[in-house]
Design goal:
Blueprint lengths: L13 H25 L10 H18 L5 H16 L3 E2 L12 H17 L4 H30 L2 H13 L1 H6 L5 H16 L9 H17 L8 H9 L12 H17 L2 H12 L5 H11 L16 H10 L1 H19 L1 H4 L10 H20 L13 H27 L7 H31 L1 H7 L4 H11 L4 E5 L16 E5 L10 E2 L39 E6 L19 E10 L6 H5 L6 H4 L2 E9 L2
Parallel strand pairs: 2-3, 2-5
Antiparallel strand pairs: 1-4, 5-7, 6-7
Helix pairs in contact: 2-5, 3-4, 4-5, 5-6, 5-8, 6-18, 6-19, 8-9, 9-11, 10-11, 10-17, 14-15, 15-17, 15-18, 17-18, 18-19
GO molecular function, one term: alpha-1,2-mannosyltransferase activity
Subcellular location: Endoplasmic reticulum membrane
InterPro entries: GPI_mannosylTrfase (IPR005599)
């Protein structure tokens, strides 16, 4: 029996090909219509990348010069180890003990190298090097923000991009976070670069988006802060389940290709562990994977250890923090997803794709663009231990979400005006709608400026006071007093506002006198006096260290051994017997330099958080932040 021949697949007739082409055109038109309904406004002028990076740098450079260090973790876990690598002296926290090894020397080494280059080429004074390193942060952040902003313009919407530009520039939160020496700030940089690619539409044919986004997510998690990888979770889900803008054939196995591409990109990203582990091996003199150590400590330490022993906060902590640093646009950011879903519901019949082969609805893609902020906020809200810097990673995403939320509301108002009010009003609807968005952004900018000026006016004194150590008059005076011998600069209750040894000249050492604080203070790294370039303190196990925040008495010296004292004096507070008013003790101390400093406990919440010209001096209580010299 002759084998049966399979019927040949009929070739498409010209009419069927024409119908397919027509369907594709209709599908594309539908996508354009849906996008227009979400974001109906005409494309506005948007600054180019070169203009944007200049705008960002002007603001970030100002922050680098004026911002005080607001987190003692920045000083003792990052500036001090950097000073140790560069100069051979510095204070060590328990995190750098090889027993625990939850801080990476690879991250520190990059900054120490930068500092050494500046020392050899540009500046000799350590305080100048501090500000040069900060200026590098300003440059890097400006570049990342400009890339992030242009990606929004090109792949989301020009007007949303323009809103985001203004919100990034005006945010009080970004002002402080942009130049902080913290892994969470570094991860904020890499998150912006990752989103420069993640904001593109998913593609079946090209893997550029996947590889580049995963690389930056991985770099932020491995070299910076491992928990920052959580911000990439929606991106991974989108890669696996969202087709994107391309029209595919019925049997096109696009998901298989995406899985292969994502796994390959993940392997490439994880390969970054190798150079980081090699550098940490060189310094710790043992194999250790710091990102895993950090996760283990924070997640699996148990009740007696872990981050909770350093304090816990209520669930609403990040909501209050968000309002302080982003004011009304934080509310817009929180409302962006509900606003998008409401718009989707209102346009539900039009939002459905024609068939499974068509491109993904813009609504679905926008859900994945907005989701990372919510994922991050949820994860860190349920953690008992909360700190402001934990939100740094998503600060740019707050601005993006807020811009989307503001623009969706603008679209609602525009449609409402056209349908119901335009017939009875002669003015152009664009002016009316623009007025609303400009009013919201103007209020945001005014409140943000009040916050930034308030932070400077109320809390800038430590930067000024520590900077006095490099004043020419002080150096001349100190040279006569100490004649090159070591001088002790003491701190008691103000230990956590120390701005690092970059603010102390050579032969000046920070010392602790006992106050009411009963936790674990840092101690000096081991110093090799014979070999100036040797840093054995990175691998030697220090004595009297623990991960339980238990006080160690070897940290303190007697106040009689102090040559200088940094202290804040609050006249309106009751005297604590464990924390004498050194500034008032004129028999033993002389005020060399003092600056006003806000008495936070005795000032109203509103005027201590924001600068209000008419109330700042009258409503607030003030103290003096002083550099005191021992009386002779």
């Amino acid at each position: 029996m002759a084998p049966r021949k399979r019927a040949a697949k009929p070739k498409p007739t010209p009419s069927s090909a024409s119908a397919s082409k027509s369907a594709d055109i209709q599908n594309a038109a539908l996508q354009q219509k849906i996008r227009a309904e979400i974001f109906p406004s005409i494309n506005p002028y948007t600054p180019s990348f070169n203009i944007a990076i200049r705008l960002f740098f002007m603001v970030r450079a100002l922050a680098a010069i004026t911002s005080s260090i607001s987190d003692c973790d920045e000083t003792f876990n990052y500036w001090e180890p950097t000073h140790y690598l560069q100069y051979g002296s510095g204070l060590q926290t328990w995190e750098y003990s090889p027993i625990y090894a939850i801080r990476s020397w690879a991250y520190i080494g990059i900054h120490a190298f930068m500092g050494k280059v500046f020392e050899l080429v540009i500046a000799k004074k350590k305080m100048q090097i501090f500000f040069f390193i900060r200026m590098c942060f300003a440059i890097i952040c400006s570049y990342c923000e400009a890339r992030f902003y242009r990606a929004i313009v090109e792949h989301v919407n020009p007007r949303i991009g323009r809103y985001t530009l203004v919100l990034l520039l005006g945010s009080a939160g970004m002002y402080s976070a942009s130049v902080a020496y913290l892994p969470s700030t570094f991860s904020m940089y890499t998150t912006m670069l990752a989103f420069a690619y993640a904001l593109q539409s998913p593609s079946v044919s090209s893997g550029s988006r996947t590889y580049k986004a995963v690389f930056w997510f991985a770099l932020g998690a491995i070299l910076g802060w491992p928990f920052s990888g959580a911000v990439g979770i929606p991106f991974v889900i989108e890669e696996l389940f969202v087709k994107g803008s391309e029209i595919t054939k019925k049997k096109d196995h696009w998901r298989s290709r995406r899985i292969y591409r994502l796994v390959t990109a993940g392997v490439v990203g994880l390969s970054l562990l190798l150079p980081v582990a090699l550098i940490d091996y060189f310094y710790y003199q043992k194999w250790t994977f710091v990102p895993f150590n950090i996760i283990g400590y924070n997640v699996f330490s148990g009740a007696e250890r872990g981050p909770n022993i350093f304090g816990t906060e209520p669930w609403w902590f990040y909501l209050v923090n968000g309002v302080l640093n982003f004011n009304i646009i934080f509310v817009c950011a929180l409302a962006s997803m509900p606003a998008l879903l409401f718009t989707y519901w209102m346009n539900l019949p039009k939002a459905q794709p024609q068939d499974g082969k068509g491109p993904t609805s813009p609504y679905v893609k926008f859900i994945f663009r907005l989701a990372p902020f919510y994922v991050w906020l949820f994860i860190f809200t349920i953690q008992p231990h909360k700190e402001e810097r934990f939100l740094f990673v998503v600060y740019p995403l707050i601005c993006l979400n807020a811009a989307v939320g503001l623009f969706i509301v603008r679209g609602w108002l525009e449609n409402l005006y056209i349908k119901h009010l335009a017939k009875n009003m002669k003015s152009d609807h664009s002016y009316v709608v623009t007025f609303v968005s400009v009013a919201v952004i103007s209020v945001f900018l005014i409140i943000s400026m009040s916050r930034v000026v308030g932070l400077y006016t109320h809390y800038h004194a430590p930067l000024d006071v520590y900077g006095k150590f490099y004043d020419n008059d002080f150096l001349s005076h100190a040279a006569e007093m100490h004649n090159g011998t070591e001088a002790n600069v003491c701190v008691g209750k103000e230990w956590y506002r120390f701005h690092s040894h970059y603010f102390l000249p050579d032969n000046y050492r920070l010392r602790f006198v006992r106050s009411s604080f009963r936790g674990l203070l840092p101690k000096y790294f081991y110093e090799d006096k014979e070999q100036s370039h040797h840093r054995p303190g990175t691998w030697m196990v220090p004595h009297h260290m623990n991960d339980l925040n238990h006080e160690e008495m070897d940290r303190y010296i007697d106040v009689g051994q102090c040559d200088y004292m940094i202290d804040v004096d609050y006249p309106s507070r009751a005297v604590n017997p464990e924390e004498p008013r050194y500034a008032a003790d004129t028999q033993h101390w002389t005020k060399y330099y003092c600056q006003p400093f806000l008495d936070q406990a005795n000032s109203p919440s509103l005027t201590r958080a924001f600068y209000i010209p008419s109330l700042d001096q009258t409503s607030n209580q003030w103290g003096e932040y002083c550099l005191l010299e021992k009386s002779k």
